[in-house]
Amino acid sequence: MSLPIVDTFGRKHTYLRISLTDKCNLRCTYCMPKEDMQFMPSKWLMQADEIKALAEIFVGMGVDKIRLTGGEPLIRKDVGQIVSDLGKLPTSLTLTTNAVFIDQFIGNLRDAGVNSLNVSLDTLREDRFIAVTKRDHFTKTLHNIRLLLAEGFVVKINMVVMKGINEDEVNDFVRMTLEQPNLHVRFIEFMPFKGNQWDMSKIVSYNDLLSEINNEFDFQQLTGELQDTAHRFQVTGGAGTFGIIGTVTHPFCSGCNRIRLTADGKLKNCLFDTSEVDLLTPLRAGQDVRTLIYAHFHKKHFAHGGHADFTEKHAKSDYEQNRNMIAIGG
Predict the structure, then answer these.
(1) Tens of pLDDT along 74-122?
(2) Burial 153-179 (b: 16+ CB within 10 A, else e)
(3) Beta strands of 98-194 (E only): which ranges?
(4) Nearest-angstrom CA–CA distance, 165 and 5
(5) Which residues form a coiled coil (predicted)?
(6) How many helices (H) and strands (E) does the chain have?
(7) Does the reported pTM lie above 0.90?
(8) Is residue 240 reached through a cis peptide bond, with omega within 30 degrees of 0 on the bond before it?
(9) How large is the angle between the packed helices 48-60 and 79-87, nearest 10 degrees?
(10) Contacts of 175 (CB under 8 A, 6+ apart)
């Protein structure tokens, strides 16, 4: 067992997010830029055995939770093997998906010990779904969410709330949690990334979300952990929960325990930090990458990758220097 990954602020990093691909079967504008998206050549991507090797190294450094992301992780042809390999590690395993292909992997996920998944869904209206995603998979997505619940999986729905797009559906999503103990909703503030046309004026804030929900429901805040990204709540008498991830207006950096590995094997110590360390090249050369990992987290900033506060005038151009969201891993 190696030493744990601890930064200069004393934060211990135990949660590894691995992006399997920057490709996706949807085209959500807040994640993928409208034009000039250059996908990574396949030779740049980590292969299944390399993902396993790096995951084993991180588990040896104290990681106890792994999440597979993308792009859409389930479009990789070898995702079944990857899930199987990582399911054998002494850590919890989960993934974030748009659920379009999830019906093909129920058995793989169950065999690997996966019992909870995050599903990206930003609207409950078919016309809006097509407008946001640029694809007509609304019926399939809802069907597969119901399938996951019927199969006993815990489903956490991630909704990116954007002013003028879907903020009028917030309470419709809350209503979904009333009778489903295994269904939880997370409302996410719109965040800035390269090419996603972010602006503070488009944000529906943490406080605005609570105010809107309070117009229709009585609810209580639930106890959480320091490293939680979402403040969680439950409607009085409800079965499931809802939460708010207020990255912009209510940041959770003080308890951050996250490690990000991009699909091309670059290590990021923060979602918003533009600095990266290549782990894949030295791994392929047979080198020990642990020293690189420790050094990169020793440089981690306290908040937002050392960038400007979101409210400052130059924040938009500052955060534009980062990768697209789809190239980082959601």
Answers:
(1) 999 999 999 999 999 999 999 999 999 999 999 999 999 999 999 999 9
(2) bbbbbbbbbbeebbbebbeebbbbbee
(3) 116-120, 154-161, 183-189
(4) 40
(5) none
(6) 11, 12
(7) yes
(8) no
(9) 20
(10) none
Asked if residue 310 lies in contact with residue 248, where contact means CB atoms within 8 angstroms, the answer is yes
Distance CA 281, CA 292 (A): 12
Length of the chain: 330
Sequence-ordered list of residues with C-beta below 8 angstroms from that of 51, at least 6 positions apart, any chain: 18, 20, 82, 85, 86
Residues 298/13, Cβ–Cβ less than 8 Å: no
CB 30 within 8 A of CB 276: no
Mind giving me the DSSP string for 26-84? S--TTTS-SS---PPPGGGSPPHHHHHHHHHHHHHTT--EEEEESS-GGGSTTHHHHHH
Tokens of 37: 């998206």
Eight-class DSSP state of 6: B
Residue 107 to residue 225: CA distance in whole angstroms = 31
User: Quick one: tokens of 17?
Assistant: 């997010």
Domains of the chain, first to last: 15-328 (3.20.20.70)
DSSP string of 278-318? E-HHHHHTT---HHHHHHHHHT--SSGGG---TTSTTHHHH
Structural tokens at position 6: 């601890």
